[in-house]
Structure formats: structure tokens, C-alpha cells
Amino acid sequence: MSSALRYLDESRIKYYTVAAGQAVTLGWQVILASDTTVQNSGSASDAGIGIALESAVAGAPAKIHLYGHVVPVVVGTGGATRGAKAIFVADGFTDAAAAAAGATTTPIAGVFLQSGVATNRVGMMLALGGNRESA
Fold it and tell me: Residues with Cβ < 8 Å from 122, sequence gap 6 or more?
């Protein structure tokens, strides 16, 4: 065990299976490869869901500390895509458009952990923030 600080009293820990042909590394950000599998994040632009608390190889379970609380939400007209940033619209939550250069900030409610169509209920990890790039 390293000397890195760990405060896990309020943690949200979930086991995911490591995706085929992939691995996860202790301390790395992970992304969803499917609704039930994860892999190491490849870049800063990936919508990570948490941090690997152990290393694991393809097909093995991996202990993941999720970044936020997970809640069921109603999917809006635009649909929900696993791993996409979520925004609230008139009839539920839907995928946020890709950030574009400019001064407009779109409030992000979280990241979808499941895919769905309008009126479905899917899991969304809460992560309030903005979806914006500087001009």
C-alpha cells in the first residue's frame, strides 16, 4: 500500500469487468467500454467514470471508485448514450452537444452510465459542470 491519502467513508465503489483486449491500471481514470465493462482512459477528452482502485486484466473484475453519485433519470427526446455528458431538456435528460469554441456554457448534469431512448430510465452519475471551450 502506498502512502497516498485515501478517504473512502463516502465512496461509491462498483465492480466492473475489464473489457476484452484491455486492462485497467491502479490509479488510472477508466471509461465505459460497454454498460458492464471498463478500460483505461486514453486521453483528457474521455468522459471518465472513476478511478481504478486495483489493476486488472481483460475479463477480470476491477474495483472502480466512481466520481459521483448515481441516480436514475428519465431520458428526454434526444436519447441517452452511455459515456456521454448529460444535459436537462424539457422532457428529461439527453446527450449534450459537443463543446464548440465560443462563450456559451451549457450546464452539464452528469454522465450517462447506460444508453436509452425517450421515456426510459437510465443511470446517470451526477457531475455538475459546464461544457464549453474558450474562443
Answer: 72, 73, 75, 80, 112, 113, 114, 115, 116
